[in-house]
Amino acid sequence: MISSIIKFAAIALAGTAIASAANAQVKLPPTVTMTAYDTGTSGFNIAVAVGKMMKDKYGTDTRVLPAGNDVARLQPLRIGRAAISAMGAGVYFAQEGVFEFATKEWGPQAVQITLSSIDCNGLSLAVAGDAGAKTIADLKGKRVGFVVGSPALNQNALAILAFANLTAKDVKIVEFASNNAMWKGAVNNDVDALFGSTIAGPAKELETSPRGIVWPPLSHSDKAGWERVRKVGPYFTEHDATCGAGGISKAKPIQMGAYPYPIFSVYANQPEEEVYVLTKALIDGYDAYKDNAPGASGLGVKVQTKNWAVPVHKGAVKALKEAGAWSDDQEKHNNALIKRQEALLAAWADFNKNSPSSDPAKFTEEWMKARKTALAKARMSDTFE
C-alpha cells in the first residue's frame, strides 16, 4: 500500500561525511506525507515540527495534511496517500470498529502505532468553579456537556464519570453543536462540567471568567475507580498534570488521567522496514524537534506509554528494541492486542457474509451485536457493551 509513496531504494542521506553510524541507518525517502488534526492544533503543530526535523536532518520534504475528524485523518493512510497519521483516541475506535467506524464503509481497522506523546497536560472533566463540585462524585445531578457527532468526546466524559461510578443517567446531559460551543456554554452557565485538556485555550477562558475552573482529581491510589475508567475508556492512563488552567503547575500537580496525543499511527500491512525508518527518525531526531511545539517533548523514547490499547507495529518494535525501550512484558501485551485485531477483522468478514441490513442505522446495530458475540466467544473484553 505505502510502497508507492515510500520507496526505499538506496537513497543517500542528506548530511556530511561525518554522519554517525546511527544516522546512516535512517534512509528516508525524498517526501513523506502525514495527516494530522486541524491547522493550529497541538497535533498539527507537532507534525510540522517533526517535518522540519526530517528536512533539516535527512533532507526529506514533509507534507502535513490537516483533517477535521478521525475518518478524514485515516482515509489518506488507508488508501496509500499518506505514510503516517497523527491520531488521537480515534485510532482505538478505528481498531474496535465502533462509532464512526461502525459503518459499511469502514468496520474495524488494522491500525497500529509507532511513537505517541503524553506531556505535562492532563485530560479530564473541567468543572466550573461555581458549580460546587470538588470531586467527580460531586457531579451527580450536575449538567455535563456532550457534543453532537463527537462520540470520542462523549465517551471520554463517560469514562471520567465512571471513576465515581456515575453514568449518563446520574447527570444532566446538555448537548452542543461543537466543542467550542460547549466551552462557551460553560462560560455562559449553560453547563457545569465538560471534557477537555488542561492546556486548551477555552479552558483558560473559563478560568478567567466569573465562574472559574477546577479539575476534580482522580486519585491514582483508587484502583477500583481507575478500573471503572478503563472499562469505558481503555485508552486512559494515570497521569500527573503539571501544566494548565486552574493553577496547575509542577509545584501544584493534579492526579488525573490522560491518553497519548498525538499517536503516530500506521497500518499493520505497511512494510516493516518502512515503519522502522520512520520510527527511528522520530527517535534519532528527537532533540531537533522536542522544544519546537507544545507536547512534542512527550515523544521521547524514554517516556513512551507502555502496554496501551492499540498494538505497536513490528517496524516500530524493532526501532524501540534498538533504543533499549522494549521489554518481554510489552511483547506479550502487544501480541495479545494483535490477536484482538485479528479477531475483530475475522468477525467483520463473517458479519458481511450474512447480508447485513442496507439501512445504515440497522447495519450499525447488527454489527455491534455481532461484534459483542465475537468478542465474548474469544473471551475478550467489550468496552462498548
Summed up, what is this model?
This protein has 385 residues and is an alpha/beta fold. The chain has 2 domains: 2-118 and 260-337, D-Maltodextrin-Binding Protein, domain 2 (3-Layer(aba) Sandwich); 123-258, Periplasmic binding protein-like II (D-Maltodextrin-Binding Protein, domain 2), CATH 3.40.190. It contains 13 helices and 12 strands.
Task: Summarize the topology.
Elements: H1 21-24, E1 31-36, H2 42-58, E2 61-66, H3 70-78, E3 84-87, H4 90-96, E4 111-116, E5 123-128, E6 143-147, H5 151-162, E7 172-176, H6 179-187, E8 193-197, H7 201-208, E9 213-214, H8 223-232, E10 237-241, E11 254-258, E12 263-267, H9 272-284, H10 286-289, H11 314-322, H12 328-353, H13 360-377
Parallel strand pairs: 1-2, 1-3, 6-7
Antiparallel strand pairs: 3-12, 4-12, 5-8, 5-9, 10-11
Helix pairs in contact: 5-8, 6-7, 9-11, 12-13
Question: Which CATH architecture of the largest domain is right?
Answer: 3-Layer(aba) Sandwich
Share in β-strands: 15-25%
Rounded mean pLDDT score: 91
**Count of DSSP E strands?**
12
What is the alpha-carbon Rg in Å? 21 Å
> Strand pairing plus helix content: what structural class?
alpha/beta
Query: Treating each run of at least 4 consecutive H or I residues as one helix, how many helices?
Result: 13
- Biggest beta sheet attributes: 5 strands, mixed
Q: What are the segments in which pLDDT stays under 50 over at least 5 consecutive residues?
A: 2-24
